[in-house]
Amino acid sequence: MENYLDNPASLKIDLMLRGIKMEDPVVKAWACGCSGIDMLLPQDTLVNIPCMEEFTRNSPYTVRRTGERYFITDGKSEVEVKLVERPAFYSRKTSSGVQFSEIASVHGSYTVITPSPRCDFFNRSIECRYCAGNFDIRGASDIVYTVEDILETVEAVLKEKASEVIYLSIGFSQGDDGGIEFLKPYIQAIKKSFNCLVAVEALPPRENRWIDETYALGADSVLYNLEIFDKELFELICPGRASLIGRKRYLEALAYAAKVFPNGTVASHLIVGLEPPGSTCMGIDCFTDMGVVPILPIYRPSAGRALRIEPLTTEIILPVYKHLYRAVKKSGINLSWVRDISMVTTPAEIRGLVDEGKGDSLMESFYKSRLGLKAAWGLSTLRRKLRVVSNNDSDPSKH
Amino acid sequence: MTLQIDTRPIWLILAIKSLRPIFFLALTSLFLYFLWMPAPEGLSVEGQRAIAVFLLCLVLWISNAIPLAITGILAIVLVPILGVLSNKVTYSLFGNEAVFFILGAFILAGAVMHSGISNRLALYILDRFGGSPRGLLLTVFLLAAALSFIMSEHAVAAMLFPIVIEISKSLGLRPGKSNYGKLLFFSMAWGCIIGGVATFLGGARVPLAVGILKETTGSDIGFLDYSIAVFPLVVILLFAGYMLLTRIFPIDITEVGGAHGVLKKRLKALGKLSFKEYAVGAVLAVTVCAWVGLGEKFGLAAIALASVVALFVFRLVRWKDIEEYVNWGIILMYGGAIVLGSALDKSGAAQWLVGMVIGDFASEPWAALALFSFLSILLTAAMSNAAVIAVLLPVTIGMAQTLSIDPVMLTYAIAVPAGLDFMFPMGTPAIAIAASSNYITVRESAKGGFVMFVTAWVVFNLVAAFWWPLIGMGYK
User: Among A312, B179, B429, B468, which has the highest number of CB atoms less than 10 A from its own CB?
Assistant: First the structure.
């Protein structure tokens, strides 16, 4: 087995693939029964490591505790890590009695909020065969959180400085808008009440005007997750997305969104491990040529899911991530937006694997600072003010 | 509300956006320069200030940088602040009869449209007289003109537009391709334009012009006098317009059976003539008769407002119903224009301007009439009709004394051509409405409209030279 402990990016990938054994009772208690535990690797690389799934039993990694210090070890060598504290607001409730942890899930710089966990693909039995990805959508559930619930959640997230970006996600629902009409009151309310950045994960709408609307509403970033680039595998594994939206529309919508939204803020997931690495690399090239950031979550077989594919190894996956970094750099895509996410390895984190010794650029470091975040919000708001033109200003006295 | 995302480079958008503040900064600087520079010989300080305000408003009206009404308000604000006229005089000018006549006309037109009688009349006439392609075309053309005698031309265009669209669809006319489709929409638009200059009611510009005339000289133009003066112009232009249109776009269909189906269906959907339609029609008929017979005695505004009161007394209309038809922007703009005209006149600025700028070009009365009518018809291609009146009329009236021309004639020279833009959508709502159908293009409109532009100007001057002396008007 290769030693990945020297490089936080490769270690993150390996840990996400193999998971970690939890032997120390203090660490076990820290994990608090969750399927994954957030840790901070060297160079502030945040990772969510599976610790409860079955496959983690064969992991070479364990967490060792020495006093207040924690180390990940593979038996031969070790690196010091930090356990990421579970957000305090998780244990609290909204004024209507909903547990905050049911609504929001912190993944580093992003907090994922799902106003409704409904996904109609499940009701039609055409759900994605690997579902869930990095958040859980329960198809049959009709729960819809109120705008007030969501606002209280966002307030709790921001007060605790748990994340900088609010990531609103929605499953499939019938309609031409891709879910934006549903998310509209939430986006508007968040933007009205807080100075924070909002990312929206939705389905590609049938018409581009909805993408304009998404931007005009206040979304700073948008994700239309294709998940699988290979046409046949896409149809096989994501039957709902393939039949009701279509791969072509995904690509069209992403290309259009990349023209509307700022550089580096339009992204799409390509799950590594659900298709041959060469196909993922083709997807990366296609996306980066359009100005879209490919985000590569790693496929992890979950208990109870129909799909059982043998995961790829880190040796096979690493070149894909290196290709991702080179493609993103070649296309001049801004890396400041998609960063510090515990559930995926971002292009910025791969830098250390390709350009060894190179750290964050000056701009990236700036945007990680508090001042940088305020600047990002301000610039994003200004850009929207400049770009959005609403044609409702007519002069009644003109004639 | 429709949204658009401007995807041009940010630096370009920023540059374009910064043009507005730069424009206002430059305009303010120039305005202040005009205010503070030494007054030229023969011009009083008040006159100089009035001209500065006039130039400021001129640029704002032409550029449309702020709504026309707001420019009007700016004039009302600046004139007393700069001491050109006192506060009391300035604000009292807003109580001008023309402003109230326009208000009354808006409410009357609103009541007519709301009652549905205008729509019913249009459908009935089209169904009754449009038996052949030529007959239907002529009916649309003349109906648009006739309705514009009693209603604002753009209200007529807006009312006829859905009917003409349905007729075009029922006849299977292809947008952008069908000659007959183009003919129908041009007929609607040109009919409205030509009919709109026939009476005081075709648009608010004539009452505004008369208001400025009355305020500055005390002279007046009667409802009937005006219509008699422009009658030959309207007839000749209707004839010329129809001939020109059918030459440019030869009729390319042989029958219009499908259109009648649509018209009958629409008429049927309206049901029988309601009491409200009868009553509103009667009030309008009585009002027009009163304008013709009693206008001089009681004033047009008083008659219009009395009719408005009658509408409400008999509960023929509710305030909520007519609110959307009252264009307060136009009313505010006219108030400002009247103040500006008065300021230029009373400060002596108008006379000074005429002597300095226009005097040499218009040394003879006929030349002055030709020049001002040309300026008016030219400007209205780029500006709204009302703005042309506001810009040109105060200066023009100022010239009357110098050239020994009846100011009433010069008022006609500005007010009538200001309504005759056949070329571009920005100057005339009727063209804009027709162009929105996609059956006609702005290019086609400019092409045909240019010939009508020249025709209208020549005919107007011929009417002035040969018809007006016959009815007791003419060069002094």
Answer: B429
Q: Is the ipTM of this complex over 0.85?
A: no
**Nearest-angstrom CA–CA distance, B137 and B145:** 12
The reply to whether A399 falls in a domain is no
Which candidate in B3, B60, B64 is best for mutational testing of the A interface (most A CBs within 10 A)? B3
Last residue of a domain, one of A83, A109, A127: A83
Q: Tell me, yes or no, if A391 comes closer than 8 A to chain B by beta carbon.
A: yes
Contact between A391 and B6 using a beta-carbon 8 Å cutoff: no
pTM (predicted TM-score): 0.66
**Looking at the domain assignment, is residue A153 inside a domain?**
yes
> A395 vs B4: CB contact, 8 Å cut-off?
no
Q: Are A220 and A198 in contact (CB under 8 A)?
A: yes
CA distance A396 to chain B (A): 6
Residue A393 lies in a domain: no
Between residues 114 and 153 of chain A, which touch chain B (CB distance below 8 Å)?
none
| B14 vs A213, A386, A392: nearest CB | A386
Judge contact between A325 and A286, C-beta under 8 A: no
SS3 category, B156: helix
Check: CB of residue A122 under 8 Å from CB of residue A291: no
Question: For B5, which of A215, A391, A397 is closest by C-beta distance?
Answer: A215
Q: Which residues contact B257 (CB under 8 A, 6 or more apart)?
A: none
Per-residue pLDDT of chain A (399 residues; tens, 9 = 90+): 677 888 899 999 999 989 998 877 777 777 666 668 889 998 889 999 988 888 888 899 998 888 889 999 988 899 999 988 889 999 999 999 999 998 999 988 889 999 988 888 888 888 888 875 433 444 445 689 999 999 999 999 999 988 889 999 988 888 889 999 999 999 999 999 999 999 999 999 999 999 999 999 999 999 999 999 999 999 999 999 999 999 999 999 999 999 999 999 999 999 999 999 999 999 999 999 999 999 999 887 766 666 777 888 899 999 999 999 999 999 999 888 787 888 888 888 888 787 655 666 677 778 778 788 888 888 889 999 999 988 654 444 444
Angle at CA of residue B146, ends B290 and B285, nearest 5° = 25
Distance from CA of A252 to the nearest CA of B (A): 16
Inter-chain CB proximity A212 and B4 less than 8 Å = yes
C-alpha span between A7 and A4 (Å, rounded): 6
Residues A110 and A210 in one domain: yes
Asked whether the beta carbons of B112 and B118 are under 8 A apart, the reply is yes
Give the residue from A36, A60, A83 where a domain finishes: A83
Tokens of B26: 């430059």
A229 domain-assigned: yes
Do A63 and A102 reside in the same domain of the chain?
no
Q: Contacts of residue A392 in chain B, CB cutoff 8 Å?
A: 1-2
Mutate to test the interface with A, among B1, B5, B18 (most CBs of A within 10 A): B5
Return all residues near B76 (Cβ < 8 A) that are at least 6 apart: B90, B91, B94, B335, B336, B339
| Domain span including residue A75 | 8-83
User: How many Cα atoms occupy the beta-carbon half-sphere of B461 within 13 Å?
Assistant: 18
B72 Cβ partners below 8 Å, 6+ apart? A397, B57, B332, B333, B334, B335, B336, B337, B390
| Interface residue B217 vs chain A (CB under 8 A) | no
Q: Which of A393, A357, A330, A284 is nearest to A43 (CA)?
A: A357
- Looking at the structure of chain A, the number of domains it has is 2
Structural contact between residues B333 and B72, judged by C-beta atoms closer than 8 angstroms:
yes
Distance separating alpha carbons of residues B240 and A89, to the nearest angstrom: 80
* Closest in A386, A388, A391 to B17, CB measured: A386
Of B3, B328, B329, the CB nearest to A212: B3
Contact A112, A105 (CB under 8 A): yes
